[in-house]
Amino acid sequence: MADVKSVGVIGGGQMGSGIAQLAAVAGIGVWLVDLDSEALKRATQSITNSVQRFVSKGQISREVATNALKNLKCTSNLEDLQSADVIIEAIVESEDVKKKLFSELDRIAKPSAILASNTSSISITRIASATSRPCQVIGMHFMNPPPIMKLVEIVRGADTSNETFMTVKTMAERFGKIIVCSQDYPGFIVNRILIPMINEAFFTLYTGVATREDIDTGMKLGTNQPMGPLELADFIGLDVCLSIIKVLHVGLGDSKYRPCPLLVQYVDAGRLGRKRGIGVYTYG
Ligand code: NAD
């Protein structure tokens, strides 16, 4: 099992920035990579604000926060990841785009490096097939927002080695996370169950059973969840929810996973949720 001293995180959006923060706070040197320099600026700001909140709540010391910000470096150049021990990908939820990136990472990363994906639903075995090191490819599925949520779902592809699994498990525990393990089937554990519920909430709205507020209040108070499913969909991103339900539909071949037309229409209209200021709800 390798000792992880340097991590690369690709994608500085809501997930990648949170994952980079976890590694930096754990005392690991991090390169955060995004093609979009504005995304890197937003990520740096959000990480700075978030570690300051942890300090003011007494959850980390000022010294840990200062060192975390020193541990973090941003770049748009993938070649900067040459010496990373583990690279965690958190870019758009598209199999083709992820495979292209993994094939590039396979060329750039040192031979011992582990390549992990934060994919919500795409097959790790298929992503690994784009590399010459499938035994060093693994799923590391953080929950949103990564600095707060306790769980990391670890997904083993068909060829993932025990050594890769143990290195990633130990790193997740160093981040303060609790892990669960899933076999490599569509949606893994959490999204296999969560996303059909969100899709069903859209059908409930689409067929006029109830208002969005009553659907959310019903599920919040009726099943003791902190957020209703439509509110949660806006938080996750409606585009991300749609990609995942499509993966379940194709991968499991059951019509019960067909995407709700209302979810499709919102995504077509650019109503992607909180990140765009509008989804099921509108945000100020
Ligand atoms: P996001 O849209 O907030 O961020 C994606 C970032 O990746 C953007 O900043 C974009 O500029 C960058 N990017 C895209 N292609 C790139 C490339 N080739 N190289 C470098 N940067 C690139 O997305 P997100 O919500 O952070 O989701 C990222 C991944 O995490 C997806 O696979 C998603 O399924 C997964 N995930 C999302 C959630 C969630 O709740 N949103 C939860 C768990 C996992």
Automatic annotation (TrEMBL):
GO molecular function per UniProt: enoyl-CoA hydratase activity; NAD+ binding; oxidoreductase activity, acting on the CH-OH group of donors, NAD or NADP as acceptor
Pathway field: Lipid metabolism; fatty acid beta-oxidation
Record carries keyword Hydrolase: no
Domain 3-hydroxyacyl-CoA dehydrogenase C-terminal: 187-283
Catalysed reaction, written as an equation: a 4-saturated-(3S)-3-hydroxyacyl-CoA = a (3E)-enoyl-CoA + H2O; a (3S)-3-hydroxyacyl-CoA = a (2E)-enoyl-CoA + H2O
Binding locations of NAD(+): 11-16, 34, 93, 98, 120, 144, 275
Keywords of the record: NAD, Oxidoreductase
Matching Pfam families: 3HCDH, 3HCDH_N
Domain named 3-hydroxyacyl-CoA dehydrogenase NAD binding: residues: 7-184
Single GO BP term: fatty acid metabolic process
InterPro entries xref list: 3-OHacyl-CoA_DH, 3-OHacyl-CoA_DH_CS, 3-OHacyl-CoA_DH_NAD-bd, 3HC_DH_C, 6-PGluconate_DH-like_C_sf, 6PGD_dom2, NAD(P)-bd_dom_sf
Binding-site positions, CoA: 50, 57, 120
Family: Belongs to the 3-hydroxyacyl-CoA dehydrogenase family. In the central section; belongs to the 3-hydroxyacyl-CoA dehydrogenase family.
The protein's name in its UniProt record: 3-hydroxybutyryl-CoA dehydrogenase
Organism: Papaver somniferum (Opium poppy)
Record lineage: Eukaryota, Viridiplantae, Streptophyta, Embryophyta, Tracheophyta
